Amino acid sequence: MLWKDKYELGVLLIDTQHKELFKRVEAFLQTLRSSASWDEKVQKVNETLEFMKSYVVEHFHDEEVYQKSIGYPNYEEHKKIHKEMVDYVLQVSDEYERSGFNEQLMQQFAGKLLAWLINHVASEDQRIASYAIEKGVAGDE
Amino acid sequence: MSNEGFYGSFLEATRNVFQLMLDLSDISDCPAESFSCDEELDISIGVIGDLKGEVIYRFPHETSLHMVNIMSGMEVDSVDEFVTSAISEIANIISGNVLTILAEKDYKCDILPPVKYEADDSKEYAMREAYCISTSVGNVCLDVRLNNVS
Q1: Is A30 left (phi over 0), alpha (psi -120 to 50) or beta?
Q2: Rounded-to-integer distance, Cα B91 and Cα B142, Å
Q3: Interval A46-100: pLDDT, tens
């Protein structure tokens, strides 16, 4: 299981979305890394990818709203990191479609996504929680 | 800053990232000469700004597979595009952390996207050091090649 309890921020909405995001990435990886042939799994990979893309955007938006609501000082910087990831996802997705669903592209994307997500949630997002605790605004909104 | 200062920055960043992302806490440095492996994945991260050059992260295949296994919870048995990309991103994250540490010491630098290293010994570097980091999933070697621009 990708999710670890140490990733929890203590904000119900964000923690619930993080868990869901990890669940979806895990499902994406399981499909992508299964021993089935590419022809057999490409449709499911594409469906999972589309589902995940929209969820990433929705989650980033909700997290930014939360950061703003607590006056998180690194809001702009964090938003920039989110935007760069969304741009990357869209760029790869576009290239993937234009390539006629090239498997290697998706394998590369999945590797980066896995490491990026773990680092982002375990490191960048934890700073939001530290700030909220320090300012006494932690907990559910 | 002394070479030891740079060394400390890389060791600190690697230790932080490995602990945070891989739950590896038993990390120590060891002589670069002790690094040896049959097959390795070499990732280069270009550095620009006050310092210019590159850092080459040398991951033995076995270590790479262990690291991706820890992150994904899945068995991986070959260093393919998926593993290469995940390990490249870890090298990218470590380098990003090093930049933050260097910025606190008034060095303004940026990094370029990770690429597979292709041997090029034609360039000369004022600062060239190799460091080996020992972990429970194997050793990783960092080959730092930088010139001071400012």
Answers
A1: alpha
A2: 10
A3: 998 898 889 999 999 999 999 999 999 999 999 999 999 999 999 999 999 999 9
- Name the E strands within chain B: 28-30, 40-49, 51-60, 109-111, 115-116, 127-135, 138-148
Please report the ipTM that was assigned to this predicted complex: 0.92
Q: Are B144 and B12 in contact (CB under 8 A)?
A: no
> Which residue of chain B has the CA closest to A28?
B72
How many beta-carbon pairs under 8 angstroms link A with B?
Answer: 64
| Stated pTM of the model | 0.93
pLDDT tens for residues B13-63? 999 999 999 999 888 888 888 888 889 999 999 999 999 999 999 999 999
Q: What's the total number of domains in chain A?
A: 1
Residue A6 domain-assigned? no
**Which homologous superfamily is B3-148 in?**
CheC-like (3.40.1550.10)
The answer to whether residue B56 neighbours chain A at the CB level (below 8 Å) is no
